[in-house]
Amino acid sequence: MDIVDSQVHVFFTLDLEETVAAMNAIGIQSVIIDEYWGTGPSGELLPAASLRSGGQRPLSPLAQAAVLKHPDRFGILQRVERTDPALASWVSVLADFPGCKAVRLITNDRTELQALANGDYDDIMRLAQRHDFAVNFFGQGAAAALDGVLSRFPDVRCVLDHCGAPASQADWDAILSAGRSHPNLWLKWSHAHWWFEAGPYPYAGLQAQLIRALDAFSRERVMWASDFTHERLGRSWGELLFYLRDSQLLSEIDKGWLLGRAARIAYRWPAPAEAFSPPHLARLGPLPYQEVIPAPAAQQIEN
Fold it and tell me: E-assigned strands of 122-262?
């Protein structure tokens, strides 16, 4: 199965080769990197450049290196700021970056949510439309603030991060309604443990809410992300994947879309012609003969 993790902050806890080894171990083909090192002295998210005109411009230097070394395994989700004085030229540069698949906007506070509702993000949407970028949004209340944006830009693929960050059951219902109303809206199924009652592994409560999301958005517009580098409740990268990969409630077609294909379409990132080969298997190569292991003596007698 072609598995894409559509958001991980690698370089926050793992370096590149550790990340590749972990991906190989649990069967992940590709990862979208939202590069994050921590917070700077002025509260800025790093890495970022301080602009001479004021403000910060988020950067992804190590993610770029990862893409250059492993172009089929890594893509970039680049944060941008609507107040960047050179926004148009910067997005044009991003369009030429190897592996840059989408931009990400953080609309956590009331000012930014109001700006989103008022159309102050429309310039970014026009740039995304021009360069065929998907646009990711994170912030509680973003789904409601996006209603007009989604209608004005029906050709721009938009993604609600982290299940849309529902603060209540009413919020979740509104997010599901937005998915039914806007065919250009995707949902990133990540950090579901923050928003819903999970229960013990394999998290029956999360799976029940996921079924609702698939019904509302369709299986073609829900993508999985682990964001495991920000998983503070002790769940491993593998657990965040396997509860879905091994689910008894999802069909194999559902899993194929959720775990890979929906992200491939939203981010315009075709699957590689050949899946990765774990390095130790590549070194060993095929067996020179078919090994035959005899059955235990008792089994031989019964047969």
Answer: 134-138, 158-160, 185-189, 222-224
